[in-house]
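Handout, section B. The chain below has 181 residues.
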Amino acid sequence: MKRFLLISALILLFLSIGGYYLYRAMMPEIIAEAVVSDSMPGYIPKRLQPRVEAIRKPINKGTQAMIETMHDSGISLGEVLKAVDNITENQAYAFLDEIDQNHPTSSDEVFDVAKKYFPTDFDAEVFREPFMKHFEMKQIRNAIAYANLNRKSNDVDLPTAKAILKKIIIEKEKEVTGKKR
């Protein structure tokens, strides 16, 4: 009986470690692939496909425009990834709090708040135009609502969200530079 309990405990431990690895290491890659791929990945459940499709196209267009702006402005991929890495939980929550309190009505206002809370080593102002052109307030409100929901439930913590964002940027960068060759 003790042996059975020990084996059961070890199996449970290995499954827990595997699940944690899948969540931390694989989830950002899976989500980024779903967002930047040209077609809907087969592993997305049918009931979620319309929601993924609704965000996939605008994010792809906006991210592509921002990557092209990054190249045109001489900002390196490393600088952008470092800026994402440097976002702290306090900054992210302060950003959300100000957005929730002030209820911005334009992507321009959201960009101003983002610049206030997320400083960079480069001139982030170059990204204002593609941000305003490709990210509508409806999408931004949905993203803010999702961030606020996850803030309470902690389903997607800040390190995981940053990993997803970085993976999307890296994948879109590969796609954009591949098209230029």
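Note. The CA atoms of residues 100 and 145 lie 9 Å apart. Compare this with the example in section A.
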